[in-house]
Amino acid sequence: MKRVTGIGGIFFQARNAPALRAWYRAHLGIDVQDWGGTSFRWAEGASTGNGSTVWSISPAGNDSYAPSAAPFMVNYRVDNLDALLDALRAEGCHVIGSEASEYGKFGWVLDPEGNKVELWEPPTGQ
């Protein structure tokens, strides 16, 4: 079973999110949207379709990465979330939940240092 197939997103918090977003826009040319980030489009091999990597800055102090205390979270693309979460549980990893939405299936696990890791199975065709 393949596990991680790519990076689906990089999310981090900032003390002054609007100013940091503006800096990335002005100095690195990142097209930061009103929602706080951007989506970098890319193409995979013809058999797997196209995809994207989300990059996003949010205000510091929210608990979106809880139970981790880290101000960041990496989202990894996976092919089969349910099978991977089962394997991680069997290996003794601390899986902290999962959910499905219109954006695909999401699952979360804590790494050995307590960082929240997001696993994402995109919807079919994305």
Automatic annotation (TrEMBL):
The family database entries (PROSITE patterns) matched by this protein are listed as: VOC
Q: Name one Pfam family in it.
A: Glyoxalase
Q: Which SUPFAM superfamilies match?
A: Glyoxalase/Bleomycin resistance protein/Dihydroxybiphenyl dioxygenase (SSF54593)
Residues spanning the membrane:
none
What protein name is recorded for this chain?
A: VOC family protein
State the coiled-coil residue ranges: none
Domain VOC, residue spans:
6-122
